[in-house]
Specification:
368 residues, alpha/beta, globular
Length: 368
């Protein structure tokens, strides 16, 4: 089993983690060989996953090591699957399970799953006994390209997306990119949307992959998938190294999130895949950039063509949102997450975006 290594550095240490080490493994996932459940070690390890991940064929040998959730000094906790479980109750369930099994601050949490599991496990780790080491095994394209990288943790609360959380980088991240082949189309497209978002604001070469190799991407060509994942990791790592706690540069990584989070909140928890909401948010933000004369119509049309080629929503009002006063509901939801003014990144060209003040009239112009 071949292994490659990358590192993400942080200018300031959080939880003693100045660098996140990334391991890449070829071939089918082999968690038993890497983690050796039950082997005597100085640390207790709590593995956290969800029902969907636990049912994967690649997880069966690993899961079978645990009898009633226990294997020596290792423990396995299986939570519910999906966005509906990205809540404070799940975070507290992790903490309670760790307490019941006497994990100390010197022990270890290991998340195996998508963005939800990575986010809530890292959040639980950041608050458990004031900080326990956390490792991540991302199993979805979205978590590989986005959620596992950069130290953001959190959960949904009060029908809002990620209003509570911490900055708490993982010590180690383990990559089996072949997990992507087991994803359903919605999960796969969700990860692609997050990668495409990053290409617009921070990596022109990645944008060209989406523009010129769409059929290989749709066919899940493993080499192209690996190129997308590593491009996202290295690009995001450079940004996070400069600005872990989102004072300036890291704003780029939030591109389209204002619209996307509003979409998810209005549609209802778990109704819309996060990547689907991101793609729609991209369309709205690009449309706004065009209307305010930041980008040319040719660029807007090219981006819309790529979005539509991958089957992503570009209409002003997404089909999952129904009822009256839709524009007003979107604006109200967006404003509820802002303090005194709206600032959004306006795309001038690929890998060229500036933060600008936006009025509610501007928002209204792209939500009708």
């Amino acid at each position: 089993m071949k292994k490659d290594t990358l590192q993400i550095s942080y200018l300031q240490p959080y939880n003693g983690t100045k660098k996140s080490k990334l391991f890449f493994y070829d071939g089918s996932p082999d968690l038993v060989s890497v983690f050796k459940p039950g082997k005597s070690s100085a640390k207790k390890r709590l593995f956290i996953t969800d029902g969907t991940t636990a049912s994967l064929k690649a997880m069966q040998d690993f899961s079978n090591c645990f009898d009633d959730g226990c294997c020596g000094s290792d423990f396995l906790l299986v939570l519910g699957s999906g966005e509906a479980y990205k809540n404070i109750e799940s975070v507290l369930t992790i903490a309670k399970y760790a307490l019941e099994n006497n994990l100390s601050r010197n022990d270890l949490f290991i998340a195996i799953g998508g963005g939800v599991i990575c986010d809530i496990t890292a959040f639980a780790a950041s608050i458990y006994k004031r900080g326990i080491e956390v490792h991540l095994v991302p199993t979805t394209l979205l978590s590989m390209t986005d959620a596992a990288i950069g130290g953001k943790t959190g959960c949904d609360f009060n029908n809002l997306k990620n209003p509570i959380g911490t900055f708490y980088p993982a010590k180690t991240i383990y990559y089996w990119t072949s997990f992507v082949q087991s994803l359903n189309d919605e999960q796969y497209n969700s990860g692609l949307a997050a990668a495409f978002r990053l290409s617009l604001v921070a990596n022109k070469e990645l944008y060209e992959i989406f523009k010129n190799q769409s059929q290989l991407i749709k066919n899940r060509n493993q080499e192209v998938i690996n190129n997308i994942i590593k491009a996202c990791i290295t690009t995001k790592a450079e940004i996070v190294k400069k600005d872990l706690t989102e004072k300036k540069e890291r704003w780029l990584l939030n591109y389209a999130n204002t619209f996307a989070y509003a979409y998810e909140s209005i549609a209802g928890t778990g109704v819309v895949a996060h990547g689907q909401a991101i793609a729609w948010g991209i369309a709205r933000q690009v449309e706004l950039s065009f209307k305010k004369d930041y980008c040319k119509e040719a660029l807007k049309n090219e981006i819309f063509s790529i979005l539509e080629d991958f089957g992503w929503e570009t209409n002003p009002i997404p089909s999952e949102v129904t009822g009256g006063g839709i524009t007003e509901r979107f604006i109200k939801t967006i404003m509820s997450s802002k303090s005194d003014k709206i600032q959004l990144l306006m795309l001038k060209d690929i890998q060229n975006a500036n933060m600008e003040d936006i009025s509610t009239a501007d928002l209204e112009s792209v939500l009708k």
